[in-house]
Amino acid sequence: MNRLILLLACSGLAACSAELTPEAQLVRQITPQMTERCQFLGPVSGTELMGMTVTDDVSSALNKLRNETAARGGNAFVLSNTQSSLDGSIALGDAYVCPT
Predict the structure, then answer these.
(1) What does the longest C-alpha to C-alpha distance in the chain come to?
(2) Positive or negative, the Cα torsion across 33, 39, 42, 45?
(3) Is the domain 2-97 a CATH 3.30.110.70 member?
(4) How far apart are alpha carbons 72 and 75 in whole angstroms?
(5) What is the pTM of this model?
(6) From the CA atom positions of the chain, what is the Rg in Å?
(7) What pLDDT digit, counting tens, does each position of 21-69 carry?
(8) According to the model, what pLDDT value does residue 96 have?
(9) Residues 26, 75: contact at Cβ < 8 Å?
(10) Mean pLDDT of the chain
(11) For residue 54, is it left (φ>0), alpha (ψ between -120 and 50) or beta?
(12) Which of 35, 36, 41, 74 has the greatest count of CB atoms below 10 A from its CB?
């Protein structure tokens, strides 16, 4: 029943997904090799469950990871793992502050 309510709430053209905060819009994905001059802030993650599509879930999970990176004061992250299924997606990474 709860899933039905969620699906009805998300119906229509708008998808249920995490929006980027203004700070998170400036967070970029980098490679591990690019972290040499960066300060490590800690692990970050984003999870999205039961979205309309797997693609929407992945996008929302990455947005949540960017939001968490920005909330910790970071401006970059290294993505370490993503997992997706029909039930949801999770994105795992490490947050950094890097010179601009």
Answers:
(1) 50
(2) negative
(3) yes
(4) 9
(5) 0.81
(6) 15
(7) 999 999 999 999 999 999 999 999 999 998 889 899 999 999 999 999 9
(8) 98
(9) yes
(10) 86
(11) alpha
(12) 74
Tokens standing for 83?
Answer: 């997992």
Beta strand 88-97 pairing with 28-29: unpaired
DSSP string over 14-72: ----PPPPTTGGG-EE--GGGGTTSEEEEEEEEEEES-SSHHHHHHHHHHHHHHHHHHT
Of the candidates 86, 2, 78, the residue with the CA atom closest to the CA atom of residue 48: 86
Which tokens sit at 26? 């400036």
Residue 17 phi/psi, 5-degree rounding, is -155, 155
Give me the amino acid identity at 16.
Answer: C
Q: d(Cα 46, Cα 89) in Å, to the nearest integer?
A: 8
